[in-house]
Amino acid sequence: MEVSFIRPNFDPNSHILKGHQASKDQLNRPQTLEKLRQSHLIHFACHGGFDNANPLNSALLLAGNAPLNLEGRRTLTLRDGRRFDLDSQGLTLREIYRTLDLPACRLVILSACETGLLSSQLTDECIGLATGFLAVGSLSVLSTLWCVDDFATAWLTIRFYDEFRQDGDVVKAVYRAQQWLRQVSVADFLIWCRDSLKMSATDLDELEFQLEDYNQTAPFESRRHWSSLLVSGL
User: Fold this and answer.
1) Is 3 domain-assigned?
2) CA 214, CA 217: separation in Å to the nearest integer?
3) 146-183 b/e with 16+ CB inside 10 Å = b?
4) Mean per-residue pLDDT of the chain
């Protein structure tokens, strides 16, 4: 959903890896690394986790088949207990420093959990996934401060692009998207999806069903839904 509604902002120049294609092997192909090097905006929509004990093992988690036995391997355990093999599935902070070069990038969006958390254990500077992308060339990074709600965060980033198109100001676009999300009613949210995103009647019915799990007055008014995004950089 997130990719589908964001993609029209960049066609015909978008390059998308999704599903099984969004793997670590595919990311590390020379063709993909060159695409990243030329990109002005890069968006990750995936799982993520911060390793406070070893910040360099903090990672964006990509598609890929992990070994059945993870004993003795480098892993990252998420807050919900799921465990991922870093060698086959994780783009770690260490690898961001080592392999990525983003000289043209204006903004990286990390739509995943805990991508804005920081540690200063290994150095006198704070390091984390967001600072890693700044270090390899991106002017700004949009990241998250905790384990986010997938559904709410997807809509927050979709609305961010809607606002970003107005004036190209990252900070103002985040602020406007946050204020909209925290205040929007179910009725107005569905109208926006119908009129701005051109969602079909069937998709709107499914969306309305999903919204039943949220506050029916203002579904995303809880701070945990709209305030996790953090802008770093210029």
Assistant:
1) no
2) 9
3) ebbbebbbbbbbbbbbbbbeeeeebeebbebbbebbbe
4) 93
Q: Domain check: are 124 and 13 in the same one?
A: yes
Q: What are the φ/ψ torsions at residue 55 (nearest 5 degrees)?
A: -55, -30
The position carrying tokens 């919204």 is: 211
DSSP state of 119: B
| Beta-strand pair 41-45/107-111 | parallel
Q: State both tokens at 100.
A: 């990525």
Please indicate, yes or no, whether residues 15 and 126 belong to a single structural domain of this protein. Answer: yes
Q: Do both 174 and 60 map to the same domain?
A: no
Q: Which domain holds residue 115?
A: 8-147
Domain match, 27 and 121 both:
yes
CA distance 217 to 184: 8
Domain count, the chain: 2
What sign does the dihedral 68-72-73-75 (CA atoms) show? positive
Considering only residues 11 and 142, tell me which one the structure prediction assigns the higher pLDDT: 142
* 21 belongs to a structural domain: yes
**pTM for this predicted structure:** 0.92
User: Per-residue pLDDT for 125 more than 70?
Assistant: no
